[in-house]
Amino acid sequence: MPVLRPAGAKPRRLALVLLAGGGLVSFLALAATPHDGLHPLALMAALLPLQLAALAWAGMHRR
Question: Can you give the pTM of this predicted structure?
Fold first, then answer.
């Protein structure tokens, strides 16, 4: 029996990969911050890729 997928299955997969990639980049950027003190701007810059990926994901899932 063939698996039936909705018409928008590819954009959803792309959005999920984009969101996961943004999370990975944010995680790696946060891990690269110095351990002697976390500056608030460094924290915001590290979270920016995840925020942008979440905005793109929300834009793709808006109906």
Answer: 0.65
